[in-house]
Amino acid sequence: MSDPYDRQRTTTRHQCRFGGPLWKVTTITPQLTPVDRRAALDRAARLRQLSEADRDAIRIAQDPKFSRWLEQVTATGGCAHPVHLSGSTTVLDGATGEILRRYDTRDEPGERLLIRCRNRRASICPSCSRLHAGDTFHLVRAGLLGGKNVPATVRTRPRLFITLTAPSFGPVHRAGELCRPRCGGGTCEHGRPLGCGTFHAPDVSIVGQPLCPDCYDYSGHVLWHAHASKLWDRFVIDVRRRLASSAGLVQSRFAHHARLSFARVAEYQKRAAVHVHAVVRLDGPDGPADEPPAWGTTDRLMGAVRASAGRVLVHTPYSPAVGELALRWGAQIDARAVRTGDDGHDDDAVAAYVAKYVTKGADETGAGIDRRVVARDDIDMVSVTPHVRTLMHTCWRLGGLPEYAPLHLRTWVHTLGYRGHILTKSRAYSTTYAVLRAERAHHVQDLDLPETITDAQWRYVGSGHTPGAALLAAGVAEDVAMNREVAREEREASQ
Ligand SMILES: [Zn+2]
Ligand SMILES: [Zn+2]
Ligand SMILES: [Zn+2]
């Protein structure tokens, strides 16, 4: 009978050293065909050729505590840069002092617990950025539809979705239509054509680049960014003032009659200028739970928003090099009423639209980069378009002028001078990120027992992943995203 594994048997006889009978020893060695031998050699070569990350991943997977490590990574949703903590939490019975529950990282892999980095940028942590976008969605949605401790009556309030743009700092190439048609042709003082008769595809790199970089107002662009948040504040104040005067109120009495709430996000356009999307809502003086006065209608809010957006301005400090600029919003102002159907579809669409923007870092939109610039030479090293690089250089140069020192422009070179948060909201708009996070933590840990004392001692011991761990965590993050997608599709299919 032939050996199914095609092994070779060798039998040897050994003389017993104490004069006993002969020992018969059979050794079985696998019979390697030339093909097998080649495969074995290939396997060895492949192992040698594996990347450092792959070999590291194999090492981690062979660790006896691997399954617990994977549980931890899964609990962070496959966070790309988890924070490592070491410590313990003990829950004691308040009356007897009996230990009800104890958790200690001493038994954990590497004696540590991994928690999420919570970065909002998809380029830095796909998993946490998705979570952050979800929180933003709920935060914006609660202000439109109620929920998360916001009363459902907010859906009957005047609510607008508005988009305010930056003004023009010079013509740029644009996609989707004939770029810059011009009958007479002609060139600027630098000899460059004043028009462009091309249809550009949306993803070509020329889109957003100025027709003439020498004509483009780079100082104006950077200074506008540096004042955009102030311009927004002036805008909100002006809307309140207009509403007050249109209702025949003294401006200082506005807060006794109504309250204006908002949530806004900033987005970089192709030309690397920020524009602002915002939800604006009018309530009674006590906020979401309070009915606005009879004069507080959607039409009146719309009128005030349009008039204020067209009118407010901010003056830059005087500079011998630049002069004094009067900065305002661009002429393109979009404002529309948010209407709630029974299914809340319009509101959902607005909330999803806003949520999408907060996960985009400056890196992804191609406008600026995700980290600070510490030296002027760094600007020449980063991979950005010539237009963005010039904006960064302008920001650095203006940041060196004493008259602009209060703007801290060199700190914001990476965001092209824009220093507002990506999402800002007024206090009464809806819930907060902190409340949403606490709600989730409560859900997961349920450590909040009545009549107990909690003793917790934690310290930071590191962050991030080794190359192999990063590979495994990315796989977990993909699985989580995939599961969520499947669940969403199933939900939609069943509706
Ligand atoms: Zn993360
Ligand atoms: Zn063009
Ligand atoms: Zn020119």
From TrEMBL:
- InterPro entries linked to this entry: RepSA
Tell me the domain of life.
Answer: Bacteria
**What name does UniProt use for this protein?**
Plasmid replication initiator protein
From the broadest rank down, the organism's phylogenetic lineage runs: Bacteria, Bacillati, Actinomycetota, Actinomycetes, Kitasatosporales
